[in-house]
């Protein structure tokens, strides 16, 4: 598994020699440039990044994709039920699965599907007991690789740790420059003041 990230710093430009899919999908294309084509690599992402053209562009490079998508209307059919639709777009088979748990979630993939259906255990607030409901394989696959909230939190913790290291490194460089210019320690910003100035900026 490979991890990479990009800090947003302004306008998101399209990737050279690839179609302009809009800012959010262009981020995925840029971060997947180093993935070898046609080697059965898989990419997972959340609904902010998802677009049909992104699924197709990745599939044409031989990279499978699975992500959540946003839909405006849901007609709840009961917990554990699901609907699956398949289409071919620009020669690429795309499947969408809408699954109903406590709320509806819709996933789209160029490689995964609902079958085989498994069961998962959920707490039922009406009966005050745990029940088993059906869960399409696409949901299990997405959760396995995107992770539950604890794993997402660890990603955010990694980002905050990274930012902390950058700030401390910048502060140490600031102190070194001040010493080089013969500025006394009392006139230098301490780390807290340095952080506050960054936040204000």
UniProtKB/TrEMBL annotation:
Q: Name one Pfam family in it.
A: DDE_Tnp_1_7
- Keyword entries, A-Z: Membrane, Transmembrane, Transmembrane helix
Q: Is Cell inner membrane set as a keyword in this record? A: no
Q: Which domain of life is it from?
A: Eukaryota
Q: Which residues are listed as membrane-spanning?
A: 158-178
Do you know which InterPro entries this protein is assigned to?
Answer: PGBD
The PiggyBac transposable element-derived protein domain is annotated at 5-153
PANTHER family, per this entry? DDE_TNP_1_7 DOMAIN-CONTAINING PROTEIN, PIGGYBAC TRANSPOSABLE ELEMENT-DERIVED PROTEIN 3-LIKE
Q: What is this protein called?
A: PiggyBac transposable element-derived protein domain-containing protein
Upper classification of the source organism reads:
Eukaryota, Metazoa, Ecdysozoa, Arthropoda, Hexapoda
């Amino acid at each position: 598994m490979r991890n990479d990230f990009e800090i947003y710093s302004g306008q998101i430009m399209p990737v050279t020699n690839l179609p302009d899919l809009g800012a959010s999908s262009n981020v995925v294309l840029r971060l997947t440039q180093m993935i070898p084509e046609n080697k059965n690599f898989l990419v997972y992402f959340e609904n902010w990044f998802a677009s049909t053209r992104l699924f197709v562009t990745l599939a044409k490079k031989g990279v499978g994709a699975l992500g959540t998508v946003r839909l405006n209307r849901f007609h709840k059919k009961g917990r554990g039920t699901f609907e699956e639709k398949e289409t071919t777009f620009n020669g690429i088979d795309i499947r969408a699965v809408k699954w109903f748990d406590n709320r509806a979630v819709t996933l789209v993939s160029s490689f995964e599907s609902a079958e085989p259906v498994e069961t998962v255990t959920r707490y039922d607030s009406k009966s005050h007991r745990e029940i088993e409901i059906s869960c399409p394989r696409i949901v299990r696959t997405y959760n396995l690789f995107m992770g539950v909230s604890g794993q997402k939190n660890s990603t955010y913790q990694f980002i905050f740790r990274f930012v902390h290291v950058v700030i401390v490194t910048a502060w140490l460089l600031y102190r070194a420059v001040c010493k080089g210019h013969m500025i006394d320690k009392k006139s230098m910003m301490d780390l807290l003041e340095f952080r506050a100035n960054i936040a204000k900026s």
